[in-house]
Every structure is written in structure tokens, then in C-alpha cells.
Amino acid sequence: MKYELIAPCHFGTEACTKKEIQQLGYEITEVSDGKVVFSGDERAIARSNIFLRTTERVLLKAAEFEARTWDELFEAVYALSWEDLIPWDARFWVAKANSVKSKLFSPKDFQTIIQKAVVRRLQKAYRREGERLPMSGADYALRVAAYKDKITIGMDTSGESLHKRGYRKMTVTAPITETLASALIMLTPWNRERILVDPFCGSGTFCIEAAMMAADIAPGMERNFSATRWKNLMEKQLWYDAYDEARDKKADGLRKLSDRPDIQGYDIDAEALKAARENAKLAGVQELIHLQQRDAALLSHPKKYGFIITNPPYGERLEDKKDLPELYRTLGKRYAALDDWSMYLITAWEDAEKYLGRKADKNRKIYNGMMKTYFYSYLGPKPPAVRPSAE
Ligand SMILES: C[S@@+](CC[C@H](N)C(=O)[O-])C[C@H]1O[C@@H](n2cnc3c(N)ncnc32)[C@H](O)[C@@H]1O
């Protein structure tokens, strides 16, 4: 069966999610702020959950309609054939609702009314009026978005958010989300042939995501999803196939990495390094990354054409703000001393560019959750193309 599937992503990274979905072979039907919609069947549900790096979850679009009163909302929801999607024993709930520029606003009321309307519908359809849902089966969570009175109801196929790949057991203050880190890497021209250094690596997110990309390791290949347990809509075999595909790609990816990629992470804090090492091991990429305790003031590299991709401190704690000018000045100087490198830096600190000492070639606004951040690009030259030898 063909569905419309919704992939929410970080504001400003829609192009990455769109490209990833197209590379999986699915047709995009809509791109708007913070989400990409595409069409796909049950197999697409399994594959998008396992393979997409930049989306927070995959929702199956269950309904879209307009409503301006709570009665209209109830009637519209009750009229839908929820029994085609949700079995009687489902553990079903409305997980989240948000509303922008709409008459109906209260998330709590959205949740209560939609919950009630779906339960009534299921009771009627399953001829169990007045009976409680047993709530003993698989998870079927709904997520609701109202925009200019258009209500979209998505059924969550992912469960736990997709940034939880399963490798980040140890963390540091202010880690970057895995989905955002991978999107930012995709916004740069970095590829596995090129050097990548994160001088403020913290728990190692950029390095680990880059190594997974280099080795073609699917972010979701070690985890389950809500829809893994959906017996009514998905055949188990589809999941086995998608996990097999991920294992084949990984084996192939590791084989193609003839040389170890040059991915390096540094941090001044020993605890952060410990976390990064542990996480890299859990992600299965510890052999692909070099991690070391080092002050960014000592940053150097003998080779040309590398990439710095990083998320320096941005004054997460107020008392740290005073150190930022010196830290960014030092980073700017160390970068300038590297030979023909590019630098990509995400930070919430507005004065970063001033202290880095050079105007960025590009500055994108990216939302990290509700936090406005800047993604500065300093573009270095491309390495000369390698000509095949005359022999
Ligand atoms: C915002 S966090 C980076 C988080 C990281 N992207 C992650 O996902 O875990 C900034 C990191 O910079 C490190 N740091 C602060 N001053 C430093 C310096 N002078 N040299 C190297 N690392 C430093 C901190 O220990 C912290 O781990």
C-alpha cells in the first residue's frame, strides 16, 4: 500500500533529508520548514527508519483536514477509518500536539479530543462499544500538527527518536544531536577521502557520524522501531530484508575503505574523551577514528585540504562566556595556520565571527531544537584532481 510519510528534521537542514530520501529511491511530495514528505510503501517505512541519518522520526500520514472548532475536530477524526490502521489491542495514545496560527490551540485539548474520537471509532468498528481498549499490544502513537487550521495527524512508526542510534551511552554537557551532526556534515563537501578534524569533539558525535557515513553504516541498523511490532500493517520479512540490506552495505562500505579514513577528534577534557571512546566503540567505529586529549590551541595538521567540522563551546553556562573571545580568537589563528583547509562551525554565540578574525563565506541559521544557532562556512580550495598516470 502507498502511504505519505513525513520526515521531520531540524529547521535549515531540509535539503539534506530530501536528498537522503531521494537516494533511498522515494519520491518527495512536499518540503516545508522542518519537514519533508515523501511517498512510500511498507518497505519504505522499514528502510527510512533504518537508513535516514537526518530525520527525527518517520510518521505515516493518517489524516489531513481543516477544523476550526473542537466539535469539527471530533467529528472529522471520528469519521476516519482508524480500524484500518490501529488494531483493537494497540497501545494507542496521542503523544504530541502543536498548533501554529490556528483557531484551535491548546495541545492538551487536541490530545484529549483526538484520543476520545479515535477510541470511540475503534469501539464502534470492533463492535466493543463501552469497552476499554486493552492497551496490551504494539505502540501506535499519534502526533498532531495544526497549521493555519489544517490539522495533520501522523502515526509514529519510529518510537524512540531516531537520533538515538544506540551508541551514545556516555555524554558531556551540550552534546549536539546525532541527526543534526550528520546533516551538518552533509552540508559540507566532506567525503571519506578527505581529512576531518573536530577540535572540540566532546562525546565524539561529529567524528562518529562521519565514520558511520564513511563506512556506510546505517544509523538504525542496531535498533528497533515502533513499527517493527506492527503485525497489522507490516510483514516481518520487510524488516529482515531492510536489516539485511544494512548489513550488506556495511560490509561493502568497510571493504571499500581501503585505507583508514583520516577522522580525528580532540578535546581538552579527559572525561569527554572517555565518553567519545566509549561511544565510538559502541558505534563500531573505534578503528576508524583517532581520538586524543588536546587543547584546541595546539591544533595543527601536516596535510593540505582538510576539514574542521566542529561545535565549540558557546557559553552554555553563563560563567563560561568570558572565555569565549580568547577561545574563538585562538581557533581562528590555528585555522589560518592550516594549509588550504575548510572550516565549518556551529555555535549559538553571536560574536563568533568577530573573534574568529575572518568573515565567513557563508552563514546559515539552523535551529537546534528551539535554540537559534549559526553554521559558519569557511571554504578552502578543492584539491587538484588526480590525473590517471600515462602508463
Ligand atoms: C559544545 S561541546 C561539544 C559537544 C560535542 N559536539 C558533542 O556532541 O558531544 C564543546 C567541547 O569543547 C571542549 N573544550 C573547551 N575548551 C577547549 C579547548 N581549549 N580545547 C579543546 N576542547 C575544549 C569542552 O570540553 C566540550 O567538550
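^ S-adenosylmethionine complex. The pocket of S-adenosylmethionine is lined by residues 172, 174-176, 199-200, 202-203, 205-206, 267-269, 272, 295-296, 311-313, 327 (CB under 6 Å). Residues 182 and 209 are 6 Å apart (CA to CA).
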